[in-house]
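Can't attach files on this board, so I'm pasting raw text. These are the components:
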Amino acid sequence: MKYRISVGISLILVFVLVPLVAAQTPSSGSSGSASASQGANTASQPKTDKTKKLHLPPNFSADEAYKQNCTRCHSEVPPVSARRTKTIVRHMRVRANITADEAEAILQYLTQ
Amino acid sequence: MKHFGICAALVLLFAVAATAQDGPQYKQPEGGVPVLTGFVGFGTDFQSGQQQLLPAISPIVLVPFGEKWLVESELELEGTYTHTTNQPWDHEWEKGVEYAQIDYLANRYVTVVGGRFLSPFGIFNERLHSGWIRNVQTAPYITAMEMSDSTGGMLRGAIPVGGFLNINYAGFFSAAVNNSWVGSTRTAGERVGFFFPKARLELGTSFQRQLQDEHVNTFGADAIWQSERVPLDVRAEYARNVTLGSGYWIEGAYRMRKAPFWKPFMRKSQAEVRFEQFFAPSGMSASGEMELPDSNAKRIFAGWSYWIRPDVRTNFAYGREFIDSGDHNVWTVGLTYRFAFPLMGGRK
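---
Top answer:
Structure tokens for the assembled complex are below.
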């Protein structure tokens, strides 16, 4: 009986606590240590929201999202606080027709 | 044996927790805050026999609601102080609402826009018209024929196709509004862009049809390309309207950050060149209220921008215009300050 209880508690620990911790952990992407040093590879980024999952091409970084989209029109982007940046990125998602995932990646790049 | 399960679970738990400390951590900022952004600018335009001072201010208010809504509005005030040889100074101020729109991010691919908005035609009107973004202060000829504002509804968005192409689109309908602040024409139109991220190339086509008075079509094409090897941007746009004429502009901008000399100055500098041409329709005058040349014209600019700070830009450009009424030089000098203040909270 005790054996069954201990196994049950163990399974609860595994299936409840591990996903909770994993949600705060960057998934083990193909980039490995490179992503850890760069800190910007969205393929290996943590899920910043439980309901959000970025759909970016493999090896596509937030840095690339910024360079490919923002610098098409802006030669300089003055830094502002994170919450202002979030509003401005939403504005630019509409204005420049940026995809939802690229906007999320750009927000990461500008606020990390 | 009975403790094996607990031990295994704890080991696994600690292993995952230890892994968590190795990887990059990203904490998404709290909700966006209302922002007052925009720019203040001052420009000059010198031509033979005429000098102009051009102060301008464009405040933009951005107010997000929840995760899907954004209310945004831009007011534009532009002054023109003109001095013509042997004449006293004359001045006028143009004021208007550039846009006052509500955006609803319906899903990943569609945004619904209602209110007054910049017409999605070409790339200059929507993306480059702001004084602190454009490289040469003088707007290209053809932007006068692209209706700048619409009042109505618009669907827009972007759809990624694999990893090699993003298709972006905008389709709109505008009602006729006769008001000095928010005037617009009854029009329908669209723009579709094809962006190739790897090549950093965007190709776009635009179309709009005026649905009041004389029904006329305007066609457009545009392109933006960024070199991955050197800090070079190339932009170009073409527009054609049967009654107003046709024309194009092409512009190159080169960031000097890799210049091997005067590094403190060069890394904040950019060299720019623009060439443009306008073809007036045969047998009729294209000008009037549209601020288009009366005859065929071409213009070339060479300019230089320098950022005193990331939000303060100075620029200087020399241009020469070739036109039937007389070729002449155009000198422009400008200073713009781009601001972004939180309207409540959000200082961090």
